[in-house]
Design goal:
- This protein is mainly alpha-helical and 187 residues long.
- 30% of the residues lie in helices and 0% in strands.
- It has 6 helices and no strands.
- α1 runs antiparallel to α2 and α2 (22-35) crosses α3.
- The radius of gyration is 28 Å and the shape is flat.
- This is CCHC-type domain-containing protein.
Length: 187
């Protein structure tokens, strides 16, 4: 993605990588060769087993490596249900992909320690440290659509669809503020 700046050519490169069969791989590769010889030569220098689904010899079970990584929840280290289903289908133990933090042994180790009894609040020593106040600016906005927390990369870039006015079919405004609102077009 860093080497190819042309968005249309970039889509062709993604298509050749995602192609499931060798004939479809060859079709997209020919498309790249016809549109940009430099990109075609650059792609030919990379072994196809490393970046294409058509030539992965079943090592990735039809998944692109980046998608499989996205299936694993990075914050909590818990595999999503479709990873567990894929593991079951390939007869792998999904338990191996689960972080040790969530295994029963670790949970039980939490309770191996004893907790000291807290005295009544009247017996606590007076607190003389810093007083921390919350910052209202950091609160999550409750109204509207929630923002995505997905970290986007070059691979996720999509061309923005140009929205057209439903009255005059021109870009830059909508039907509510159309300069031709109320005019008749069919005479």
């Amino acid at each position: 993605m860093r080497a190819i700046k042309d968005k249309k050519l970039r889509k062709k490169v993604v298509n050749v990588g995602y192609a499931l069969t060798q004939p479809s791989f060859q079709y997209y590769r020919d498309e790249i060769r016809l549109s940009n010889k430099d990109a075609w030569r650059w792609l030919n220098n990379i072994p196809v087993e490393l970046w294409t689904r058509a030539f992965d010899r079943g090592c990735r079970w039809g998944h692109m490596t980046t998608n499989l990584v996205e299936c694993m929840n990075g914050a909590f280290r818990i595999p999503y249900s479709h990873v567990i289903a894929a593991c079951a289908y390939t007869r792998q133990d999904a338990y191996n992909h689960l972080s040790d933090v969530y295994k029963a042994v670790s949970v039980m180790n939490v309770y191996n320690q004893s907790f000291s009894v807290l005295p009544m609040e009247e017996y606590w020593p007076p607190y003389e440290g810093d007083i921390v106040w919350h910052n209202d600016e950091m609160r999550r906005k409750k109204k509207g659509r929630p923002n995505s927390t997905c970290i986007r990369t070059e691979m996720d870039s999509t061309d923005k669809m140009i929205r057209l006015c439903s009255i005059c079919r021109q870009p830059g405004h909508n039907k509510n503020n159309c300069p031709n609102r109320g005019a008749s077009f069919g005479s």
